[in-house]
Amino acid sequence: NAGVTQTPKFQVLKTGQSMTLQCAQDMNHNSMYWYRQDPGMGLRLIYYSASEGTTDKGEVPNGYNVSRLNKREFSLRLESAAPSQTSVYFCASSESVGEQFFGPGTRLTVL
Amino acid sequence: TQLLEQSPQFLSIQEGENLTVYCNSSSVFSSLQWYRQEPGEGPVLLVTVVTGGEVKKLKRLTFQFGDARKDSSLHITAAQPGDTGLYLCAGAVNTGFQKLVFGTGTRLLVSP
After folding, report:
1. Residue A96's pLDDT band (boundaries 50, 70, 90)?
2. Where are the beta strands (DSSP E) in B4-95?
């Protein structure tokens, strides 16, 4: 039982490059989330998917897109990376309410 | 935008000391969760408090939800080096779907 897995663990991009962060969960949860974590700002919600087939914007969606590929997988895409997107990105999953289970994070640096 | 302010931001103490971390907001939350995060890992849930005035104990950790459900505190008795980490509070907002608003975090270092 792996829980929530994320790939890659680390990534360095140049400004303007694109990339997709992958997330998968094996707990059969309905809901999945993407957060970014910056020093002194806690975790901020980028996008979430309440259930398979639906996605919605969170607090900081600009510059990102998401795809809920199936119940297990939820990807985050940066179409044209900017230095302001340097951060640690966490994927999480949960039942509709209650505890969220987090992946180990992706550390992204945009030069 | 709902904000959750945590204080202090940083806390460095000796093993055996007691400490309290505060989580404050002007917004009302349906419930409040506390997470702990260790370096290089994602946050892990410690506790959920639901009712105003509720107190929950988890070994040496005591969590309290304010009567008005706008604030919470985490008290650690006789801190140990294993308590070192980043503590995050998160308020649950129900607007058709439950989302969490995370606090700014308190980084705790407990030295032997």
Report:
1. low
2. 5-7, 10-14, 19-24, 31-37, 44-49, 55-58, 61-65, 71-76, 85-94
Q: Which residue of A has its CA nearest to B32?
A: A98
DSSP annotation string for A34-52: EEEE-TTS-EEEEEEESST
What gap in Å lies between CA B14 and CA A102, rounded to an integer?
30
CB contacts, 8 Å: A41 with chain B: 104
Q: CA-to-CA distance for A8 and A63, rounded, in angstroms?
A: 19
Q: Which residues contact A8 (CB under 8 A, 6 or more apart)?
A: A21, A106
Chain B, 13 to 72: residues with Cβ < 8 Å from chain A are 33, 40-45, 48
Would you give per-residue pLDDT tens digits along chain B (112 residues)? 567 999 999 999 999 999 999 999 999 999 999 999 998 899 999 999 999 999 999 999 999 999 999 999 999 999 999 999 999 999 998 777 788 999 989 999 999 9
CA A41 to chain centre: 17
User: Could you read off the pLDDT of A53-65 as tens digits, one per residue?
Assistant: 999 999 999 999 9
d(CA A83, CA B100): 26
For residues A14 and A33, what is the distance between their CA atoms, to the nearest angstrom? 25
